[in-house]
Design a protein that fits this description.
mainly alpha
Length: 191
């Protein structure tokens, strides 16, 4: 049993005899990097050598703060875009409070579509998950909970396109920035 577990950790599975499931190619490495610096940590992939673990610690010590800066900047750009649209609506239609509320609502709905409602359709297609499982994965990932019960690109019976993990990695970054804005709005509302 231990041999089977070690083989699986090394990327060898009993089904299909695949050797790495794309774990350490560019896409897999990029996805691992994103899950490390975003602190999602699915638990399905980890360094197995002392040197790898030390590098991962150093990478995370530098990468996590840089990622927080990046997410903050992305969130601020999204917020500036929303505020700019609200000002333009106010100028064009002479709406005061309606424009701000309308734009915030549009930004919320657009973000819901892009980051929580549409991605499960992609996951249903590529992973074979139900829509509900894809939605669950989307929220658990973007909120950085990352249980690891659902992880993309890990089914040895499926063939994944080369762009898949890269696109999901970018979705994670932008989706986390959007969700942080939503949480910030909720905090402001509650306060």
């Amino acid at each position: 049993l231990q041999g089977i577990i070690q083989a699986y950790k090394g990327g060898i599975t009993l089904q299909g005899n695949t050797t790495n499931l794309g774990r350490w190619d560019f896409s897999g490495s990029f996805f691992f990097s994103i899950s490390a610096v975003t602190t999602i940590g699915y638990g399905n992939l980890s360094p197995s050598t002392v040197a790898g673990r030390i590098f991962c610690i150093l990478f995370a010590l530098i990468g996590i703060p840089l990622n927080l800066v990046l997410l903050n900047e992305i969130g601020q750009l999204m917020l500036l875009g929303v505020q700019h649209c609200a000002r333009r609506l106010e100028e064009v239609f002479h709406w005061q409070k309606k424009a701000s509320l309308l734009i915030k609502t549009c930004a919320l709905v657009t973000g819901l579509l892009l980051f929580l409602l549409l991605p499960p359709l992609l996951f249903s297609d590529k992973e074979g998950w139900s829509y509900e499982e894809g939605f669950y994965y989307s929220f658990i990932t973007l909120s950085t909970i990352g249980f690891g019960d659902y992880v993309i690109g890990m089914n040895p019976d499926r063939t994944y396109p080369g762009w898949y993990k890269n696109v999901i990695s970018l979705w994670i970054l932008f989706g986390m920035a959007w969700l942080a804005l939503v949480i910030k709005f909720c905090i402001n509302f509650l306060e």
